[in-house]
Amino acid sequence: MTLIELMVVVAIVALLGAIATPLYLDSVRKGRRADGVAALNQLLLMQERYRANQPQYATHLLLDGTALVGVGLADDAGAAASATTPGGGHYLLSIVSAGTTGYAVRAVGQGGQARDGDCVVLQVDVSGGNIVHASGATAALGNATAANQACWRF
Asked: What is the pTM of this model?
């Protein structure tokens, strides 16, 4: 083998690596996004369970150490404004608003998940039994319909 042949092989391997790495990282982010959506769905269930026994939806998360165990009012023991998702803490979960007829819960990408493009912020709004999924690159949640659907579809 000559030096030129070896340099050509190294260049081909580097080119393949440059193409494959971003595709791999996008797949990892998409898988972690599924974890964020699952955590939001769990929060929805917790909110509905809480509301079945209380006059309004919960305003804060309840933590046992760092683990999310439920939802409650701000004066409950262990109440926190936010919590990270289990399994790496790729999303920061919070209850954005809560009242007697509805609530909003949000997941914001942390660490590597903060580079998830238009899907960094995922939010579910529940009002009067209607559920609206929203997403965006920032808390402004400005995604159009097609981009929003892409964030919530796996």
From this structure: 0.84
